[in-house]
Design a protein that fits this description.
This protein is an alpha/beta fold. The chain is built from 14 helices and 26 strands. The two termini are 41 Å apart.
């Protein structure tokens, strides 16, 4: 049997054409959109879970091409590009599931944009730019270093990236001294005809020296310019987040992402391990969590939301975690695990009984369209699950910090729950924000008592009793304002504002592009066109721990699709995280992206090539 499928955008509408060369009796069209769909014509909506839908079609005759017209239920959602077309489409005919080819191709198209501008004189072909570069004129040939204790991580990285060895017997010696006045990640590298020498603040400073030498060798064509590089990061937190709940990224992809991060001196991997669609970590405290939600699709607890199609998923074993941790350690990267509560927990609610109030008659819906994605803090089962769970997860990661989520509680959450009404009266709480803050503080207290630091998205600061408290690190994502407010109330903050640091947003407004658009488009220039310490907020500068990029996996169906969303924009976020304010502007980062393009190609990391 041959089935055909195509889809295109016309204004708010998505026009789908389904063709068959055999007659099909009562087929059901199953697919997902970016958010909850409605059917304008061509079929009848028979089931919807968030962005996933099942549409009953009439019988199709052999040779028929049937049109189904869809819209997003939320009138504010305009389909912007190909990522907004149906993902994971298939037909269910009786008991059989028949995959449909993706409508207009998946992922970025790799058309070449205009040539990059030249790098300004006086700059090194290096991302991030060093704090200071004093050229002394001339250059030396450089192929490899003699063995240096402490550079094993960079040497292994070079090998994995498929680059020439960085360390070989008989290579150029690097004279290393420790200098107490330098910060642990800082280094002062002298490149001279007489040889290479470096003063480092500690093992991380030496590691970053190795990264600098490896990169310059690649971007300067086997030479090094002579001079002195003084370098240290502006921020201690230089992060990259990866949503492994919506899309299950293979461990190999995660290891490759760690390698790419290391090449850009990023040092925090935020591992988003649970969300509405799945719980990915093979925990022992409650195995049903991952056993029941790791795969989604036909016949599973969670259907094929966000491109899940007939079946998609996976879970990370303890051995997988050990692989990620070992790679991270070798690259001076810490791993922050995230378990999302109380919202973004649809899978958790489905998998574990007792997390919702049976008397709850509320009608809340999450931004993504779930009507049951928040656990209820008035239910004993919620605490029986969460307290040991977060302790177990935190205990698996040597960083000693766990992220508890806390974003996007649906408007009106818990308002219909009599058990919550009683809890609020008892604890003198009025709003859902008050209750979420109270709940997070209680979870955090248990962790802090074990010496574990907590982190959460910006919403965790809300609540009449002061929100999560407990010295939590907060992530400012809707903008920088909430981060500034939280910092003024005593929180340390990581800035990851969506409009500049979300790599799931499309690069451009081209309908042939790929990605979300709710916070606008993020061309490369935008990733550097902002200050982590915004104007007027200089008073809280010491509270800004750093900068992070986020990649959400809603419309990713294959690991490789994430690569061109991340590169080259990761250059901009690495720049913001390391360099002093306003060192590299949009023109500069585009010039550097031009230089890094061939390096991305050499290490086999796909990149967006458009304007
Ligand atoms: C988020 O993007 N909802 C943290």
């Amino acid at each position: 049997m041959t089935l055909s499928f195509s889809a295109r955008i016309e204004g708010r509408q998505i026009l789908c054409a389904i063709g068959t060369d055999r007659p099909l009796a009562a087929p059901v069209f199953c697919f997902s959109l970016m958010a909850a769909p409605t059917v304008v014509s061509g079929g009848t909506l028979v089931r919807r879970v968030a962005g996933y839908a099942e549409v009953a079609l009439p019988d199709l005759a052999a040779g028929a091409v049937h049109e189904v017209v869809l819209e997003h239920a939320n009138a504010d959602y305009f389909p912007r590009n190909r990522a907004w077309l149906p993902l994971g489409p298939y037909l269910r005919v009786g008991k059989e599931c028949l995959p449909l080819p993706p409508g207009a191709g998946l992922g970025l198209r790799e058309a070449e944009g205009p040539p990059a501008p030249a790098l300004e004189a006086g700059r090194l072909p290096l991302v991030p730019q060093p704090t200071e570069w004093r050229a002394s004129g001339g250059e030396i040939g450089f192929a490899a270093l003699s063995p240096v204790e402490g550079l094993e991580g960079v040497a292994d990285l070079a090998e994995r990236l498929g680059l020439a060895p960085l360390v070989v017997p008989g290579g150029l010696p690097l004279a290393v001294t420790e200098e107490a006045a330098l910060r642990p990640e800082g280094y002062r590298l002298t490149i001279a005809p007489a040889g290479l020498s470096v003063a480092v603040g500690g093992p991380a400073g030496l590691h970053y020296t190795g990264i600098t030498l490896l990169t310059l060798r690649e971007t300067c064509g086997g030479k090094l310019p002579c001079g002195v590089i003084e370098d240290q990061p502006r921020f201690g937190w230089r992060g990259q987040h990866l949503d492994c709940a919506r899309h299950f990224f293979g461990v190999d992809f995660i290891l490759r992402l760690l390698d790419l991060m290391a090449l850009l001196k990023l040092n925090r991997f935020h591992w988003h391990l649970s969300d509405d669609e799945a719980f990915r970590l093979e925990v022992e405290t409650q195995p049903l969590l991952w056993q029941r939600t790791a795969f989604r699709g036909e016949g599973e607890l969670v259907p094929g939301v966000f491109g899940g199609g007939i079946r998609a998923g996976g879970s990370y074993s303890k051995a997988d975690v050990a692989l990620v941790l070992a790679r991270a350690k070798a690259l001076h990267i810490e791993v922050l695990p995230e378990i999302e509560v109380p919202a973004h927990s649809h899978g958790m609610v489905k998998a574990i009984p007792g997390l919702r109030d049976p008397g709850d008659n509320g009608e809340e819906a999450s931004v993504q369209g779930y009507i049951d994605n928040i656990v209820n803090p008035a239910m004993p089962a919620t605490w029986e699950l969460l307290q040991p769970l977060v302790q177990e997860v935190a205990g698996l990661f040597p960083f000693g910090m766990i992220h508890l989520g806390a974003d996007e509680a649906p408007h009106g959450a818990w308002d219909g729950s009599p058990a919550v009404a009683a809890l609020k009266a008892r604890e003198e709480l009025r709003t859902s924000d008050d209750l979420q803050g109270w709940m997070l503080a209680k979870l955090a207290e248990g962790l802090v008592a074990q010496g574990i630091r907590v982190a959460a998205w910006e919403e965790a600061a809300k609540g009449v009793q002061g929100g999560i408290g407990n010295g939590a690190l907060l992530f400012s994502w809707t903008g920088q304002g909430p981060g500034v407010e939280a910092a003024r109330r005593g929180h340390d903050v990581v800035m990851c504002p969506a409009r500049t640091a979300y790599f799931d947003l499309a690069h451009s407004d081209d309908p042939d592009d790929w990605g979300a658009a709710w916070a606008g488009f993020v061309p490369l220039e935008k990733t550097v066109d902002w200050n982590p310490v915004p104007k007027g907020a200089e008073d809280i500068a010491p509270r800004i721990a750093g900068v992070q990029a986020c990649f959400w996996g809603e419309f990713t169906t294959e690991d490789s699709q994430a690569e061109g969303m991340i590169a080259p924009r990761i250059l901009g976020i690495a720049t913001k995280a390391w360099e002093p304010a306003w060192r590299t502007d949009g023109h500069g980062i585009r010039a550097l992206a031009g230089i890094y393009g061939p390096l991305f190609d050499r290490i086999g990391w796909r990149r967006y090539r458009g304007a």
